[in-house]
Each structure stands twice: as structure tokens, then as C-alpha cells.
Amino acid sequence: MKFLLISSNKDLASKNIASHLKEYFDIFETDKELLELKSSDLEDADYYIFLSKHRSKANQPSLTVHTPGNLTENNDFGGNPKEVCPCDAILNTLLLKNIYKNYNIYYENNKISKFDVSFEVVHHSPTDLNAPTVFVEIGSSEKEWVLKEAGEIIAKSVLETIEMIKNRDYEDRLKVIGFGGGHYAPKFTKLALEYDKYYFGYLIPKYASVSEDVLNQLVNKMEVDKVLIDWKGCRGEDKKRYMEFFKNKGIDVERV
Asked: Whole-model pTM?
């Protein structure tokens, strides 16, 4: 089972996280931006974990987890239109929960200031990888990107997650795709962190009305037990389409 950890020398947060992992892992380092990478740039692996910065206009300190991909024709941030990377719901959710756990230890010991810990929805490149792919990110400005403690939290969480998966040290739970809500998937983040019921994989926001082609990729590139729809956070016409699509696939849909 090979985990490829990917770091960019052009990304301050990436270099920060990688510096805390190098004694435990061989890091795949590149002089390209992470969003410029394609499958042809990388070694074959069973899992790809990108160590990355997160940028937002609000500059809110944050630690985030998400699978990359383009849900629509818009590929302004690289990759192919309407293409998503494979996703492992267990990997994504264990990463989020470990980051949250380790962040809280640091916060309670006054080693770090207030950060948000959350999922993000599917967005940006790369899109053409052939194994489960996830980004773990420090946001949202240079001040946080270089913060030693933030890098330590992400690194420790990555190591713990890899060990849990290698040893199969986790419980069986439903693997789900979530539809609806905003970019930081607040409802699904809350469900992941506060309840031990689901492993969350692909998260699709309200603003992305995805086509049947993309819906097919979601079920073909991830092991799916159930679909959750944020009922108040999803357009009516999209809810109808999604429910019909998954019903025809024999996949249960639950309103949350």
C-alpha cells in the first residue's frame, strides 16, 4: 500500500507540512505549483496526499480537507472540465477527525490560536489521477502557511491517518457523498466531527449543478453506500435530479 505525499517548493504551507514529515516519509517534491500537476508528473501510488496552502479572501485561519476535481465546465484552476479524481471517504474523514483532534490538543495547551477545521467541497486540479486523492491545507494567508504548529498538526494527522488505514484501525461506517450547502460544507463537517456514523467522500456544493456525466464519475470513482442531501442547502430542481439518478443506481438517499 503506497501513499505518495506531494509537496511543492513554491508553496509555503506545503514546505512547512513536509518539513515535519521528512523523517518519516519520502516526500515527492516538485518545483511546479501543485495545481499544475498531472498524473504524468507523479509516481504511481495507491493514495495521493497533497500538502497545500489554502487561500481565501476572508483570510480566516483554517485547516481543511478535500478531494480535487472540476464539477462543471469551469476549469479556471487547472485540470479537465467535468472531471474528478477518485476519492476514499475513509481517508478524507479520518484526516479531518485527526486534524480536529490534534488542533484541539494544541489549542487547549495554548500552542495555537483559533482555527477553523473543515471539509471543503470538490474543487480545482489535478483531475486526472487514477487513485484516491486528497488535499490537506493550511489557510488562509502567509502568516498561517508558515506557522510551525499548523504544519505539525497537519503532519501528525497525516501520519496517524496513514497508520490507521494501513492497520485497518477504524470502524465500519457508511461511506457517503454529500450534496448541498456552501464551500466549507458546514453541515457535513459537523456530522463528521460530532457523530461517528458516516465517512464522507465527495462533497458537492449548492452552487455546482452537476451533470449526469459527473454523477456517474462520483459513483464509479468512490465506494458509495448512501447519499446525503442538505435539504435546505440544495436547489429544488437539483434535488429531484439527484434523487432520481441515485434511485436508478440502487443507492439510498437521505435528507439531512
From this structure: 0.98
